[in-house]
Amino acid sequence: MRIPSRFRSLLCGILCSTLSADEALSKTQILDVLVVQNIVTELRTAQKQFMPDAASPLFPRPFITAAYAQSVDGKLAAYNGKEEVETTSNFPLSGSDSLLLTHAIRASHDGVLIGGKTLSIDNPRLTNRLWDHDSLKLHAQPTSIVLDTHLNNIQSLGDSMRLKHPIICCSKEAASSCKELPSSVVLLPCRCSKNGQIDLGDMLHKLYIGYGIKSLMIEGGPTLLKSFLDDQLVDCLCITIAPKFLGSGIGVSTNKGYHLPVSTTNFYIVGKDCCMISVIR
């Protein structure tokens, strides 16, 4: 059953006027689950219709979804009094309903990618612990992937790292000189570009061919998201907008503006947040 997001507020109002508070809360939570299911269905459809350019040097590569939460003024994280960026784990932007969406999106992809700095600051698990629906079950977990060019961030965490059996994408030099890493870590040496950073095309190709990663969720942080947008490697944008203003902080931008060849854009209300899904062709 597909419920257009524009009808959600109307339905919630009807429920709240005819049911007790507890009953209305239960029903609105069901509506949120239905909205998340709609988003997941849209993502899965886009993945199935994905046709990468066979003539591209990046062929084959995974379907890429950039998924992140931001404030109304476009910030992903705030600065604290010491001019240091606070992470969203310490300063949550989106609500609990959007957290359910994050877990559902993770479950909809073969892999979830974060940058090394996000790993060292947030030490996330990158697992699906909340979404258990239809073919996307809790036991089917995405592969955790980290882009840590010089392996500095993962080495700083050591045994405290919470990721289970992650793939760490690094430079060939870092892989050859690395001596101590948790036994569960898989290193994926990648070619570097002229600026010394990992060549994203080479990394994506190796993830697809060597590890069967046919769909990839980019969860952050801002620098990694910017790199994928700069290289125009994003096939779907999933942006959750929270009703908050952060003022000074850090957002996602590109080195130069360009037009996104969007085929569809839909907006969904998830709890108190607004989620935009744009499929790029």
Automatic annotation (TrEMBL):
Q: Does the keyword Cytoplasm apply?
A: no
Which GO molecular-function terms appear in the entry?
5-amino-6-(5-phosphoribosylamino)uracil reductase activity
UniProt keyword list: NADP, Oxidoreductase, Signal
- The Bacterial bifunctional deaminase-reductase C-terminal domain covers 62-249
Q: What is this protein called?
A: Bacterial bifunctional deaminase-reductase C-terminal domain-containing protein
Query: Which InterPro entries does the entry mention?
Result: DHFR-like_dom_sf (IPR024072), RibDG_C (IPR002734), Riboflavin_Biosynth_HTPR (IPR050765)
PANTHER family, per database record: 2,5-DIAMINO-6-RIBOSYLAMINO-4(3H)-PYRIMIDINONE 5'-PHOSPHATE REDUCTASE (PTHR38011:SF7), DIHYDROFOLATE REDUCTASE FAMILY PROTEIN (AFU_ORTHOLOGUE AFUA_8G06820) (PTHR38011)
One GO BP annotation is: riboflavin biosynthetic process
